[in-house]
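PROTEIN DATA CARD
Card holder: Crossover junction endodeoxyribonuclease RuvC
Chain length: 216
Origin: Hymenobacter caeli
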Amino acid sequence: MPPFLHPRPAPPAELLPKVIMGVDPGTQIMGYAVIEVRGQRVTVLRYDVVNMKALGSNHAVKLKRIFDRMIELIDEFLPDELAIEAPFFGVNVQSMLKLGRAQGVAIAACLSRQIPYVEYAPTKVKQSVTGSGSATKEHVAHMLRQTLALPPLAEAPKLLDATDALAVALCHHYQKGNNATVAGGKSWGKFLAENPDRLNAATTTKKPARAAKKPA
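Structure generated from the sequence above:
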């Protein structure tokens, strides 16, 4: 007769993996990043950009591209939370309106999958990553490569929006995700518990970090 088997204790909550998606919204180029956090260990799964310059001046087409790409990324990486950068208040009102719409569409895509989100001011993101709220994009990218041991990128100027998105995700990790909110009060984790087939998909679709040579 086999010995009595005791059930294994569940791992501490802080050691369970959490997947965070960071987004730097834009109407020409949208940066995105996906990280996995396990305790204090951060693994970069992917960071890249969605380039919409070739779509012309039709703003509605660009908004649809943002929504569609966000849904693709959500279904691939199954993020637990979204961290998104708030629009920077500039002098061009029309640009601000378009940027706000782009941000709203990205948020709507996550809410359609019951994913909580947090909005961070650009100065807050820079402060969290570099210690200075006035840091440049280049400084942010440099600090991220040191902090996360990222490989040097030959196409760094093209991917500064991607590293900005990575900074947003890391900023959210530093905040411990305490500010995450979701419409209806239902979490993505609860959704996965109710739909275990999505959890199985997560183990087969996650890929190592890479920065694509050809932006999406």
